[in-house]
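Sequence in, structure out. Go.
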Amino acid sequence: MKLNFDNEKSIYLQIAESIEDDILRDALQEEEQLPSTNQLATLLQINPATAGKGINLLVEEGIVYKKRGIGMFVATGAREKLRAKRKNAFYQTYIVTLLHEAKNLGLTHAELFTLLEKGEKEHG
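Output:
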């Protein structure tokens, strides 16, 4: 896990997103234990409360759950929840914006599709 302290995004959000990324990449499996907030704080040289805040975001979303006295674990179904969440965010952030701009430019669906294919070839 790597944080960017110069990033405008809060550290606790970066922690939550990094854990999400690990779950999506299968670096963290469902029912696998997460590092403790103290371990994260030591590793990242941050306040344990900041690490806890990032993990608690995932608890609120049902991505992670707490086993009392043992630690935090990746919830069953977390990967699919995250995929759905990220797909929706992708749609809202990129697709809707893309379609609005394409409309402003007068691009046809065929032209838009051609540009997408070109982008895929050039940037894979």
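Check: The CA atoms of residues 13 and 113 lie 34 Å apart. The chain has a mean pLDDT of 94.
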